[in-house]
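Read as amino acids, tokens; as here:

___
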Amino acid sequence: MMQMILIVEDEPKLAELLRDYLRQAGFKTFWIADGAVVVPWVREHAPALILLDLMLPGRDGLEICRDIRTCSAVPIIMITARIEEIDRIEGLESGSDDYICKPFSPREVVARVRAVLRRTEGAPLQIAGLMLDQARYLATLNGHDLGLTVVEFKLLQFLSSKTGQVCTRQQLMDSIYPDERVVADRTIDSHIKKLRRKIASGNADQEFIHSVYGMGYKLELLEDAGKVNPFLQLEFEIIF
């Protein structure tokens, strides 16, 4: 499957140049020029990597990067004309994975994209209190091992990759049973029930799973601002 690269750049000619080189390298691309719509798009589409310009209309790139890091561990490469060391440090500390200064070679950008994807591929997904380590099928919440089975881990991983989106039972079945075996819809409900119980064991004071009338399941990452040490609350919306 071709990986999707999101290009966030307000200069059309530069964005088109990046699109051409990335497509020739075998990637799919999507271009956004307005910083105000980046975070909602990322929540809905879950790209493989983001090329993020810092000087954008609508919102500052650093602010966008920080917001993305509250809901996603997607690799981010910042692109900017700022060349001072303090600017690069600020960019990396805001959550980016790499930093490219203008002017640059499009070939170098493609090489950086490939390098970052190689480096982050298989790395643990960590979003605030939730950590998913695919290599060990280990899921922890606030440092507590949830003790998930492989199926439960795959469910949580899939829902985490689609944060904010409603996932149907069929999508979830396809994610955990790629061999297309025949499985009853209620099998998913049973797995989710067990997953809910284990997630609750990671924080007994919070109710993470909520029933909602509809057609699938939804994972939300909501900031609990009422705590002295805030963390992201996992919330499943279970749809029957």
Residues 4-120 form a domain with the Rossmann fold fold (CATH 3.40.50.2300). The longest strand covers residues 216-223. The longest helix spans residues 185-201.
